[in-house]
Amino acid sequence: MLIRRKEQKTYGTKKLIDGEYSCGDDVVVIEDVITSGASILETVTDLEKSNLNVSNVIVLVDRQQGGMQRLSERGLKIKSLFNITEIVTILKEAGKISDEVYQSVLDYVISNQIQPVKECEKPLRIKLEFKERAGLLETSKIAQKIFNVSLEKKSNLCVAVDVDTADKLLDIAEKVAPHICILKTHIDAINGVTDATINTLQHLAKKYNFLIMEDRKMADIGNTVKLQYKKLVQWADLVTVHSVSGGMMLKGIHEVIKENAGLLDSRGVFIVAELSCNGNLISEQYIKETVKIAEEYKDIVAGLVCQSYDIISSPSLLQLTPGVNIKNSNDNLGQQYQSPSDIILTKGADIAVVGRGIYQDSNPAEAAKVYKESLWNTYLERVSNS
């Protein structure tokens, strides 16, 4: 059983959703009375932000004022045990209320229908095409580069090559290279990486026109991050960071980029703003402060790693969202996979990250092609519907 709090606690776990659950669990929402359905929709939204699946709602009493229809239009399956007409009819037949009271209730229901309420408008970022967003004055050079690569290759696919040896890394990288806009690496977790490995990666990136992102998730004080980043800046176009140590960390990265003048317009970061795993300690306030930091260092921030469409409002920032897998819904370690439609249309991703769905496939090149086409077509659907 889960409980959705009216507001987030400022102590303890600071969770909006309390209870025992895992990413991808199915949830049934139970409510006593439905009028407009607004409170149920708020609950569903918060549950989905916690990576829970909601498709069914049960209410005890439907006041028949439009709430059931509103939830149905949202794609939810909703059932009520009783509606107000049934209740007053039973009461009238039992002699508990007069004919006048019975009729007044029915008249009230008819004359007080809830007007259709527009769902929260999705941010402009979701509606604009990549070409328009790349042309905005506030879009960083590194974000422009990602947009342009995506447009040229008609790909918003980032492949995470989480393998254990350098040979496997280069083998997969070459196979998926024609179909990706970003290659995500964990170089510190791979055995046998040498300067030759890095040089080959850079050669592939130049030949096939993709960017390299080292998923290092740096999170230390500014000076330490600065020292760490000096080892990455020469070969990694992008690096991931946490915002836990504040803006000084990004200041350190910015100083390293400025020290390498030739790389000034071709290096940047993605900040992790949101995690999908159950039990993480990221709060709503943390997310808000992360977005502020991204706005402050927009010249080097390409975007945010997040799971929700409403985290980023600025069209100049990209949303990078992991967890796409067409064939599987989860693994045995809590990872919950989603379809291209979930990631692009519902969660608002601009760039989607696919890992095992591609590099563990018997034909990684063909798998990358399938994912590329599916994700890109879904992006085109999103902007055409806007």
Automatic annotation (TrEMBL):
Catalytic activity field: orotidine 5'-phosphate + H(+) = UMP + CO2
Binding of substrate, residues: 162, 184, 276, 335, 355-356
Enzyme class: lyase
SUPFAM superfamilies with a match to the protein in the record: PRTase-like, Ribulose-phoshate binding barrel
Keywords assigned: Decarboxylase, Lyase, Pyrimidine biosynthesis
SMART domains with a match to the protein in the record: OMPdecase
Cross-referenced InterPro entries: Aldolase_TIM, OMPdecase, OMPdecase_AS, OMPdeCOase_dom, PRTase-like, PRTase_dom, RibuloseP-bd_barrel
Gene3D superfamilies: 3.40.50.2020, Aldolase class I
A Pfam family the protein falls into: OMPdecase
Family indicated by similarity: In the C-terminal section; belongs to the OMP decarboxylase family.
UniProt protein name: Orotidine 5'-phosphate decarboxylase
Natural source organism: Aphis gossypii (Cotton aphid)
